[in-house]
What does this fold into?
Amino acid sequence: MDRIRAFLRWMMIDPSHPEVAQAQYNELKTQVPSLYALLMVNAVAVAYTHYDVAPFYLTVGVLIPMLLLTSVRMVAWLRAQRLTPEPEEAIRKLRQTVILGSLIAVIYITWSLSLDGYGGPEERGHVALFIAITVIGCIFCLMNLPQAALMVMIIVTVPYLIYYAMQDQDVYHAIAMNIFLVCLVVLQVLISSYRGFVKLVRSQLEVAAKQKETERLNAENERLAQTDALTDLPNRRYFFNRLEALIDDLEGADRKFAVGVMDLDRFKPVNDTYGHKLGDQLLMDVGLRLKSLEFADIEVCRLGGDEFGILFLGDPEKAAATGQAICDRISEPYRIGDLQLTVGASCGIALYPEAGNTAHVLFDRSDYALYNSKTTSRGKATVYSAEHEARIRSERAVENAMQSADLDQEFQVYFQPVVSLPERLIVGFEALARWNSPVLGCVPPDTFIGIAERTGQINRLTLSLFETAVRQIKMLPGDLCLSFNLSAQDITSVETVDALLEIVSRHDLNPKLITFEITETSVIDSYEAAETCMQTLRSAGVTLALDDFGTGYSSLGYLHRLPIDCVKVDRSFVAGIHDPVASGVITSIINLCRSMEMLCVVEGVEDRNQLELLKALRCNLVQGYHFAPPLPFDEVINSVRASAHVVGLPLSSAEGMEELRLSRA
Ligand code: C2E
Ligand code: MG
Ligand code: MG
It folds into this structure.
């Protein structure tokens, strides 16, 4: 029963394989028109041979409507050649073909058997041949629709067999049997080739499905490769690919766009204070805010760390205002758990094609504008300008001069006295680098130190300057302290720190007399590496000072966590000491240092008034033009030799900063 049901289901075109039906239809549409052509030509041939022997209505009268019906179907199939029906439509059409094919078979077999009653053996033989050849031809043409082939075979051969079996001549019995057996064999061959066809279609479908899946996975991989895992924003790779594609598209066209680099302000201290988990959460929240921005023509990517890239695709004139609005939005407070956090954001923008016409140059220019925002106007969006261009050129000149500079010849160390109060004794000197370049003349340290850092020459320069400073301070009488500035790359390099200590021991200088000055910003970027190096220096007995205190993040957390012995209050506070806020800050720092048993040096004392106010605040270490500017060593040593004084002040005999600290405590 089940088999019969399955057979009937198969005969009605199983709807569970619509894609197979679609493929069947596509094959059929190339074969069926030939089938109809064969049918018509053969029918006309039979009608022709029977024209004289059979009645006119049978040869011509019936033939014409038969031919008309067949031609209509043939044209319908020819038209279908250009179309690929949807799978469901294909099933419907195949069913239609089985039914119409059966109907046409009924008409043709009835017509041809009706003709058999007329004419002699030749005409009858022609009919037998017509039926036999035509049915085999039709079965072949219906190869891809075995249901229709089977129906046609049954409809044609069963009446044919019965009809010829009833004839009294053996030759007709034999012909009928012959045709029947041939049809059976042909049908068997067709069914097995149809199975092969179905298998092939299914495997092709599987391959196509696999290919589609592979393409989907590839697309997903590509998307992931261009997406930042933490914020789900497009990543650095996407940013540069997109930037390059934009430049390629716009080359030669009169269209512009802008590239922005945005960096969070104060993100590092948040990360250091609250841990990386919270830092990540904060970055995710920043990412969400960036995704929810309402500007239509921008694309924001995370480049890494707390750095984001922005492509301004709209009017470049508006890029600065949009960049500023983004910075402002990012600077609004964040709530993470019980904490409310605020980070700022600064942005640098470069316009295409004015600032550059390659991805690399545009990015560098926007990064340079960002650097300017960070150093001079935090929280602002800065557009790369002609002024920046000029500055880059002069920095390049400094870079070039530095590459070829003879460090020992061209660089000098100047010494600025550090004075103790109220005694007004010189307890030591801060060594400050000076560069008199034969190409550029005097270049200020603020310029060349930064460039030496960027070009990777700072460690070499530091060691050369320190060697000179140590050698020279040793030439002064007594135990004077030497304060020496280290840059970020010095304080994070184990090799440099070891080399510095080697110089101290080679010159047989008491490490207690050495103070290394570092700034907060130099430590923040690589906190762990800096802390390790600072511990090494500390265990060797040298003093560590936090320079320019009050200008960076001035996080009290750093004062606690870093192995610091001394704080140097930035000179900007002394400049405004008459303002109650500035003097309040100095007082607080002095008191804080006292309670933490740290030394406190106030820098930038320029006049008597400032000095008196500092004395009143019980400040006991000062430095500034009021006493002396940084002096060349020759001047210092000549003055000491002549009067045992420098700029009128006697030299202290206290043993290093450590002793000073103990005596103050
Ligand atoms: P700093 O370490 O804070 O040095 C103090 C700066 O203030 C020096 O500028 C000094 O000349 C200046 N100064 C001293 N007293 C006064 C004053 O009363 N009023 C004013 N307005 N300024 C005063 P200088 O020598 O131009 O150095 C600038 C910065 O360059 C230094 O700031 C330091 O960060 C860096 N630097 C200098 N030499 C070196 C060095 O050998 N290595 C490293 N890594 N950095 C150095
Ligand atoms: Mg300093
Ligand atoms: Mg300073």
Q: What stands out?
A: The chain has three domains: 2-209, 236-392, 405-485+628-665. The first helix runs from residue 2 to 11.
